[in-house]
Design brief:
CATH superfamily of chain B: P-loop containing nucleotide triphosphate hydrolases
Strand content of chain A: 15-25%
Shape of chain A: elongated
Largest interface: A-B, 34 and 37 residues
Number of domains of chain A: 2
Oligomer: heterodimer
Number of strands of chain A: 10
CATH class of chain B: Alpha Beta
Largest sheet of chain A: 6 strands, mixed, barrel
Structural class of chain A: alpha+beta
Distance between the termini of chain B: 23 Å
Largest sheet of chain B: 6 strands, mixed
Radius of gyration of chain B: 18 Å
CATH topology of chain B: Rossmann fold
Number of domains of chain B: 1
Helix content of chain B: 25-40%
Helix content of chain A: 40-55%
Order of helices and strands of chain B: EEEHEEHEHHHEHEEEH
Chain lengths: 391, 240
């Protein structure tokens, strides 16, 4: 028999023995898997909620499709950190070579007075009057063009439901913003925001009247580079020539996320939960796997006495760990995904499971089963095969 | 036998001046004190003696699971004392069968799967290994219990599975450590009869460690140990 084929048969036979040993004690087998499932579920679920929250913080940048460049005051740290510019900054940006077009964009918080007399905080977005760049993409009642009507606003679906719960969608509803009349001319789907306030879209000129009076009102200048030029290169030019902060869309998203990561307790809170899941999962899986190995120590000793080398014993233990790791990981992230799907349909919990969460969970599970294996296998590797001759 | 006796090249096992010490300093214990012994092929040798006299240590050294502190061990033509650990593992895999006092059967494997373990360790295909193991169990009278787990078998049946496991890969050295100690008189007798009938072959040496005088009649020779030394080597007839 060729050596390679013999080696394959050898290892497959020994893996089979390892697998049979593992599933032989159902209670312990399920106990180890439970530990890994618990860890994978908690890590994947908490990390996904964290990612969901982070996605909320940048939803308003992602919802503004079209412009590749955001220009703002040099001290702005994140998307809700508005430091108004003079309206003339728009023309300075337009004057930078390489800028194809640039428009004004207002972002602020306004207070709406509803017809029944109650007040509601709202996120107010003012779009360039001429182009309506930054307008919502998914208006399902009314149309974007209706924004050109006097006093017109488009409201997001979740905001509508919050202000007028249990009422059918209806255009023409009227409320007041800064003592001025606002008329709902459209309803759109929009990504949820971190503050969960209703979102109002209107023309820039309208938005500055809805907003509390300020000397400077321009929040951002949205721009695009000329065809063939890189956004980054044009950003650099804008910064150099105007002294303003110019970021690509992606840079602004990450700057906002980093702000929340660094300046809020969100990552620490979630990090602690993820760490707890990791520690508890490692403890349960490691201890159960260790007990399982100790219980089988004489059997491993017999295998060693009968001519099984340490490397094969190591592979057997690792294959057992891989088995519980794969099953635990699959079930854990599956349950986390099911939890996410359920919360998306029944609650407003932020949940976003990108591939990085799956990767992080896989890495954590890998470490858990590795720790569990190392704890167990040390005892087996140093085991004297002569142990089997002791009664 | 004098310590300076030359090695017997026709013997399955040749031990010369084998010493084994455990521990260090004041806690040092000498388990073997210069053991010389030859075991020819085709023989069933019993090692007998009181507890702690070094029987199990000696048989562990013969099987290559324990290193002697001093002396030489030639087993089936191989100098075990000169072997690397890896070669010793392969030596045990290819040439040694074990029957343990505690059966050490894998509780999750059925009788036939347990009996096939040495063949799987040797790299046999699982199907072929199971067929060969089934034939061996059938020969030992367990043809109808192939799929039973060890927990479903009596002590005697478990010991027969252990015998099948020890012989399935046709080793040239069979090492048995107290094979009857956990069995009642009848099962002990059956076990020794099976070892005698099935295991003893012209090209194989069988070493049995036992306390049980009822097993003595099954031996070709009996080596009596005392305090780490072989005091006498007699035939079963002499013992009787």
């Amino acid at each position: 028999m060729p050596p390679l084929a013999a080696a394959r048969r050898y290892t497959s036979g020994m893996y089979w023995i390892a697998w049979k040993m593992l599933i032989g004690n159902r209670g312990k087998y399920l106990g180890i898997i439970f530990g890994v499932v618990f860890a994978a579920l908690l890590i994947a679920q908490q990390a996904s909620i964290f990612c969901g929250l982070m996605a909320l913080t940048v939803s308003q940048i992602r919802d503004v499709e079209g412009p590749a460049i955001w220009v703002m005051d040099e001290n702005v740290q994140f998307v809700d950190d508005i430091k108004p510019l003079k309206d003339t900054e728009l023309f300075r940006v337009k004057g930078v070579p390489g800028v194809d077009w640039a428009v004004r964009f207002y972002k602020g918080i306004g207070r709406a007075r509803l017809q029944e007399g109650s007040y509601e905080q709202m996120i107010l977005l003012g779009l360039d009057d001429a182009t309506l760049i930054g307008a919502p993409q998914d208006v399902f009642l009314g149309s974007i063009a209706d924004l050109r009507s006097p006093d017109a606003v488009i409201i997001d679906e979740a905001g509508y439901r919050r202000i007028w719960p249990d009422e059918p969608f209806q255009l023409g509803r009227v409320f007041e913003m800064n003592d001025r009349r606002a008329v709902v001319v459209g309803i759109t789907k929009a990504s949820r925001t971190f503050q969960s306030f209703p979102i109002l879209y209107t023309r820039y000129s309208q938005a500055v009247r809805f907003a509390p009076p300020e000397r400077k009102v321009l929040s951002f200048v949205l721009a695009n580079p000329e065809p063939g030029l890189s956004s980054q290169g044009v950003c650099d030019r804008i910064t150099t020539q105007t002294g303003l902060q110019a970021l690509t869309r992606s840079q602004f998203i990450w700057q906002t996320i980093w702000y929340y990561l660094q300046k809020t307790g969100i990552p620490i809170n979630f990090g602690i939960t993820v760490l707890l899941g990791f520690i508890v999962g490692t403890a349960i899986a490691g201890q159960t796997f260790y007990l399982f190995t100790v219980e089988n120590i004489r059997q491993f000793g017999a295998l060693k006495a009968m001519g099984t080398g340490n490397s094969t014993i190591l592979l057997m233990v690792l294959s057992q760990a891989a088995n519980v790791g794969l099953i635990g990981y699959g079930v854990g992230v599956g349950l986390a995904a099911a939890f996410g799907w359920w919360t998306q349909t029944t609650t407003r919990l932020a949940f976003f499971m990108p591939w990085q969460v799956l990767g992080l969970t896989a890495a954590a599970v890998f470490v858990i089963v590795l720790v569990a294996s190392v704890l167990s296998v040390r005892k087996v590797l140093v085991l004297d095969p002569a142990i089997v001759f002791r009664g | 036998m004098p310590a300076s006796a030359p090695p017997n090249t026709t013997a399955a096992i040749t031990l010369r001046g084998v010493t084994k010490e455990f521990g260090r300093g004041e806690s040092r214990t000498r388990a073997l004190r210069g053991v010389d012994l030859d075991i020819p092929y085709g023989e069933l040798l019993m090692l007998v003696g009181p507890s702690g006299c070094g029987k199990t240590t000696l048989v562990s050294i013969m099987a290559g699971t324990l290193e002697p502190t001093a002396g030489t061990v030639r087993s089936l033509g191989h100098d075990l004392t000169a072997m690397t650990n890896g070669r010793k593992v392969r030596f045990r895999r290819d040439h040694v069968g074990f029957i343990f006092q505690a059966t050490n059967l894998l509780p999750a494997l059925s009788a036939v799967e347990n009996a096939a373990v040495p063949l799987l360790i040797a790299g046999w295909q699982r199907r072929r290994a199971l067929l060969t193991a089934a034939a061996m169990l059938d020969r030992l009278g367990l043809g109808d219990r192939l799929t039973s787990l060890p927990s479903e078998l009596s002590g005697g049946q478990q010991q027969r599975v252990t015998i099948a496991r020890a012989l399935v890969h046709e080793p040239r050295l069979l090492v048995c450590d107290e094979p009857t100690s956990a069995l009642d008189a009848e099962n002990g007798r059956i076990t020794m009869e099976l070892i005698r009938e099935v295991a003893v072959q012209p090209d194989r040496a069988v070493v049995v460690v036992t306390h049980d005088p009822r097993a003595y009649p099954f031996a070709d020779r009996i080596a009596t140990m005392e305090d780490g030394r072989i005091e006498s080597v007699t035939t079963a007839v002499d013992q009787a």
